[in-house]
């Protein structure tokens, strides 16, 4: 039995003795009638008494409203990094800013002659323009079959609906008909601007994905009225993103074990990212604040990642920078991503692991939930799709804590949309996950 399991067992028997409860190994952990508060241990109290979800809410307000969408490689993402760095400094940490290169990114602007900006998503195979872009009339090309084009498409910007065949073929047909730009709009409502994958196809003309609503508005108000639009696309090269790292080392312990507590702070385009993932960021910030002053016998690292949404690039960089010795001393990664939704159905705290198996981190969280009486059930689930993947691949036990609907594992409907707003955040749920992860982490690292 490792030290952690020993402590948990001792503690559980103490709870059983004092409460007269019979201990049965929990399968679905924990129940609402778990340990009443008077049995909470002194070390758990050190976390619970100090964790203030209202501080987390302030961070979410800053990140999602003051800054807004924090797309990888943009100034907004860097502003979020600066905000996190300044806070950690104010808590008394020495903070490391870890910059890394990211792949080239496409950026675009589409504006009507009336000055209305249309939301666009530029795929990586799009052509570019000069900074002024191209200005021209729209051509309604329906679904974009060859027969949907006429000689009138020549020199115009083709407006095409998604559906029936590939984005690359639609674009090729437009180019063959002489179009100088292509806009493809979604065929489903209430979605962010279309995110297209072109395979290996490289478009010679600028190309953008639009929402269905934008496509319809352009057809009615712009194409039919023969008004012009201006469309500019730029390839951003040599861009970088940043991780922010604060650590706390034990005094008088050589080569201590390491616990990594992490969250990503970037978001997808047009999403304010209140839940994905200002929520995780805000909880990890609050944990960093409260754990600063306590003596520890392990090393605690708080790492905030950029560039998660383009494929876990920040966390991969962070793990790749760990020495072999640091990896072997790493006992676990608590990764918080989407922990604050108030969507009622997301009543369970999922612990996503890559193999779907329990590990040091899930066990420590289950023990903490049992001790402190976490009221949401914990569900062990097999899923990647967040920064815990990078730790797992580096050989470190890792868990993504994320709220989902029990049984279905559904996420809230606001995920990756402009509706990922602070109004859909639950302060109580931030408090719950903060106490749970805080108690688990503190139990692992405390002196
Ligand atoms: N916040 C999500 C995490 C997530 C986990 C979403 C599990 C859904 C299920 C994360 O930011 C995200 O959107 N991940 C991407 C994949 C990633 C490798 C870019 C996704 O799931 O599409
Ligand atoms: Zn996320």
Summary tags:
447 residues; alpha/beta; Aminopeptidase; Glucose Oxidase, domain 1; 2 domains; eight-stranded mixed beta sheet; 21% strand; elongated; binds ligand BES; binds zinc ion
Describe, in short, the structure shown.
The chain has twelve helices and 15 strands. With 447 residues, it is an alpha/beta fold.
Question: Can you describe this structure?
Answer:
With 447 residues, the protein is an alpha/beta fold. It has two domains: 301 residues, Aminopeptidase, CATH 3.40.630; 132 residues, Glucose Oxidase, domain 1 (3-Layer(bba) Sandwich), CATH 3.50.30.30. Helix content is 33%, strand content 21%. It has twelve helices and 15 strands. The strands form two sheets. Strands 1-9-11-10-12-15-13-14 form an eight-stranded mixed sheet, sandwiched between helices. α2 packs across α12, α3 packs across α12 and α7 crosses α12. The longest helix has 19 residues. The N terminus is likely disordered.
